[in-house]
Amino acid sequence: MKLYIKNMVCSRCKMVVKAEIEKIGLQPVSVELGEVEIKNNLADEELKQLNTSLKALGFELIDDKKVQTIEKIKNAIITLVHHSDNDYKKNLSAYITSQVHQDYNYLSNLFSEVEGTTIEKYFITQRIEKVKELLVYNEMSLSEIANQLGYSSVGYLSNQFKKITGLTPSYFKSLKEHKRRSIEEL
């Protein structure tokens, strides 16, 4: 039985969800971002118990097909930006289509309708959060960050960063209190 879970955005999320599933006596076959496959079908009472346990940890079972599709899109983008070798040479629409296995026009319209923003804007927001993370670590130059995240130039990255945050990357870096947000807040 496949379950879709909201707010699973990182490796720790996968570990926490897997531990919670095992804690209530279920056997997960696989645990991926936003998706868990359970060995057996669950009764309604078991689903309620699991959902209650997950909600206490900031997760939630998703049963609406549209919301499941939105979560797949978000998880694909989060994986691309935060958990992969960042192959930005591939077209975003082609990447999303290959991950979600549905027509991009449909996905784009659905995402905009449900989230109130476009897939592209969500992608840009994720990239800027990654830039913030790398700036805080202070291990890479802005040029190296731009290269790693697939920006065509430092100037383009800086302009996009300022447009989204209202700050230049260098000013953001100099702040004592960094204004980063967790992935699930984006």
Question: Please, could you describe this protein's structure?
Answer:
By secondary structure, the protein is an alpha+beta fold. It has three domains: 2-63, Alpha-Beta Plaits; 66-119; 122-185, Orthogonal Bundle (Arc Repressor Mutant, subunit A). Helix content is 59%, strand content 9%. The protein has nine helices and four strands. The protein has helices at residues 11-23, 44-56, 65-82, 92-100, 104-115, 119-137, 142-148, 154-165, 169-174, and strands at residues 2-6, 28-32, 35-38, 60-62. A four-stranded antiparallel beta sheet has the order 2-3-1-4, with helices on both faces. It is globular. It starts with a strand and ends in a 12-residue tail after the last helix.
How many strand elements?
Answer: 4
CATH class of the largest domain: Mainly Alpha
Give the second-level CATH assignment, the architecture of the largest domain: Orthogonal Bundle
Side by side, the strands of the main sheet go 2-3-1-4
Number of domains: 3
Structural class: alpha+beta
Form type: globular
Provide the CATH topology of the largest domain: Arc Repressor Mutant, subunit A
Please write out the topology.
Elements: E1 2-6, H1 11-23, E2 28-32, E3 35-38, H2 44-56, E4 60-62, H3 65-82, H4 92-100, H5 104-115, H6 119-137, H7 142-148, H8 154-165, H9 169-174
Antiparallel strand pairs: 1-3, 1-4, 2-3
Brief characterization of the structure:
This protein has helices at 11-23, 44-56, 65-82, 92-100, 104-115, 119-137, 142-148, 154-165, 169-174; strands at residues 2-6, 28-32, 35-38, 60-62. It has 186 residues and is an alpha+beta fold. β2 and β3 form a beta hairpin.
